Amino acid sequence: MALQFTTSYVEDSLSLLRYYKALAEKAIEQVEDEQLVKAPDPESNSIAIVVKHMAGNMISRWTGFPEADGEKPDRDRDAEFQDPPETREELMGLWNRGWACAFDALTNLSERDLATRVTIRGEAHSVMQAINRQVAHYAYHCGQIVFLAKHLNHTRWKPLTIPRGQSKEFNRRLSEGVSSQR
Length: 182
Known about the structure:
The chain is mainly alpha-helical. The chain has a single domain, classed as dinb family like domain (Four Helix Bundle (Hemerythrin (Met), subunit A), Up-down Bundle). Helices cover 53% and strands 4% of the residues. The chain has five helices and two strands; from the N terminus they run αααββαα. A hairpin with a 2-residue loop joins strand 1 and strand 2. Helix 1 (9-29) packs antiparallel against helix 3 and helix 2 (47-62) runs antiparallel to helix 4. The chain is flat. The mean pLDDT is 92.
C-alpha cells in the first residue's frame, strides 16, 4: 500500500478503502468466471456472494449518509446471500455501484462532520465510528475475496503484495531507495 502522509481522517479512510477495493479487484481478475460463484462448502460464500453482500451493505449504509439511518427499510440482507449475479459484468457493475455510493458519501464529508450523530439500525454512532465500522467490515470481506481467489486459482496465483520469500529483497531495495533520497 502506498501510504500518503495525512492528518485527515476522511482522506485516510478513503485511501484505505481504495486500497482494499483495488486488492479485491486484482484478486477477482485472477479467477475464471465460473470460479466467481464457487464456494468451498455449503456454509461458505462465493466471491460473487461476498461482492453482492458488500454492494448491498454499501448502498444501504452510504445512501443519504449521514442524515439517513444506515439500514434502509428496503434492504433485503438475506437476499444478498442468494442468487449471485449471472455474469462478471453484472457482478462488477454491482460492485462499482456500491463503492461509488461509499466514495461519494465520504468525499462530501469534512473533518467537522466526524462528531455528527448517525444511526445504523437505530443505534447511535458518531460519523467517525460509522466510518470505522465500515472500513473494518469491507477490509474483512475484501480479505475473504482474496483468500477465495487464491484458493481457487492457487496454481496460477500472482501475489498481490510482496511475494513469499522476497521480504528481505524488498526491504533491501526499500532501504537503498530511502537512503539514496536523503
